Amino acid sequence: MEVKVRKAREDEMEEVIRIFEESFTGSYRYWAIRDLPYTYVLVAEIGGEVVGAAELYCKRTREYGRVGVIYFLAVRRSYRGRGIGSLLVKEAEKLFRSWGCRYSAASTQSSNRASLTLFKKLGYRVYHKNTREFGILVSALYAYEDDVIFLKEL
């Protein structure tokens, strides 16, 4: 199984939307789909099929400089547990470096065990809602509904 991670093409956005609809509910689904035109979208492809996607952007912060944000990350249910999320995050980190970002960040809810495991495994520090770092980064990540922020120096 060879996984190719690359920039999404315009004709693949409907497939990305289907993955987000399968993966997210409520306001997460709404914002993931609504903000697609304003973000850089990576896809993971296996044999011509889009099986995962990541929405990215870069934000300047006073304390951390330029921060690359993994806004949304999703993998088709039937392809989870195969390292596809890790590949998407690693490719996002490469992009962030090329964009001049000093850090990579993401956010989630503490109940999202898969995200907690993934980002910890990839060397991200975990900051909870009551920490100084969370307070500094929450607006840059639009993480108002989340209670965990991941941060990694690139």
SSE layout:
Layout: E1 3-7, H1 13-23, H2 26-34, E2 40-46, E3 49-61, E4 65-75, H3 84-98, E5 103-108, H4 113-121, E6 125-128, H5 132-141, E7 148-153
Parallel strand pairs: 4-5
Antiparallel strand pairs: 1-2, 2-3, 3-4, 5-7, 6-7
- What class do helices, strands and sheet pairing give? alpha+beta
Estimated radius of gyration:
14 Å
**Overall 3D geometry?**
globular
Largest sheet: 7 strands, mixed
CATH overall fold name: Aminopeptidase
The end-to-end distance, rounded to whole angstroms, is 29 Å
Q: Return the CATH architecture.
A: 3-Layer(aba) Sandwich
Strand content: 25-35%
Q: Give the count of structural domains.
A: 1
Quote the average pLDDT. 97
Order of helices and strands: EHHEEEHEHEHE
Characteristics of this structure?
alpha+beta, 34% strand, seven-stranded mixed sheet
What would your notes on this structure say?
This protein is of the alpha+beta class and 154 residues long. It has one domain: Aminopeptidase, CATH 3.40.630.30. The chain is 35% helix and 34% strand. It has five helices and seven strands. It has a seven-stranded mixed β-sheet, with helices on both faces. Strand 3 and strand 4 (65-75) form a beta hairpin. The longest helix has 15 residues, at 84-98. The two termini are 29 Å apart. The model has no long low-confidence stretch (mean pLDDT 97).
